[in-house]
Amino acid sequence: MENYTSITEFMQKYGTREACYQHLYDLKWSQGYQCLKCEHPHWVKGRKWHYRKCQRCHYDESSTANTLFHKLKFPIEKAFMITYQLSTMKKGMSSCEISRQYGIHQETAWYFRRKVQRAMQSLVIQSLRDNVEVDEAMIGGVETGRKGRSKGKKRKIQIAAEVGYPEDDKPAYLKRAGAYMIDDFSATSLGKGLRNMVHKDAVITTDGWSGYQPVAKDFWHEVFLSNKGDNFKLLHWHIFNLKNWIRGVHHKISRAHLQSYLDEYHFRFNSRNHLK
Length: 276
Fold this sequence. Notes:
There is one protein chain. This protein is an alpha/beta fold. It has a domain at 131-270: Ribonuclease H-like superfamily/Ribonuclease H (Nucleotidyltransferase, domain 5). Helix content is 38%, strand content 17%. The chain has helices at residues 7-14, 17-28, 76-88, 95-102, 106-124, 187-197, 233-250, 255-270; strands at residues 43-45, 51-54, 60-62, 131-139, 155-164, 173-182, 203-206, 220-223. The protein has a five-stranded mixed β-sheet, with helices on both faces. Strands 1-2-3 form a three-stranded antiparallel β-sheet, with no helix packed on it. Helix 1 (7-14) runs antiparallel to helix 3 (76-88) and helix 5 crosses helix 8 (255-270).
């Protein structure tokens, strides 16, 4: 979808069922038609105006097939609006908020929200490049008696951020970022996270944690010893905002779904200059 400056502008374009189907129809077959079943290139009109039927095997394909909007249990124009808001609102929306605002069952809202998250997951990580700062964090409630990287029930994540350094003496800023769930803070887990998020030609900067020492063979690696939060200020502020979003909007997220929420947050963060 194109960029829009407001929800009102978006609704003017996609506020009707017909407009939503037309958008999917035009987008799906913009490069021509090929049957999903037999790959035949010729079609006739299907049982509905936004369907195409294969001339050979007669498979009748909807414009919604293989999209987020297939077999919806509520009107497609609502689904378009929900997707737009999940993609553009700074804090997103919980399934409870979606349920209240759009008058659909909370369970239905939750399942559709998961579909949107899966779509975001496929787009969120395009390898971070150039100067990349890396750190770890714990997601979850307070655990008394636990300090630093000690084991506990909190979920462990690794966060990497691509840092921009303008040439005109303006302050540094975070360009893109990503987060990856890890089992522990061992070199094996940290290395796996880096390979999933960071391009091999990037220069990564970490604190003095020993788990990062083996990655020197795969990345150009710089070390800044931890200094009570004075280093990696941009990255630590990003982690702070992520934790606040989870606590404020979703309150509690299971381990099974945490990665999807991390991807959702970073999809919006990485798209913030493109989606209005």
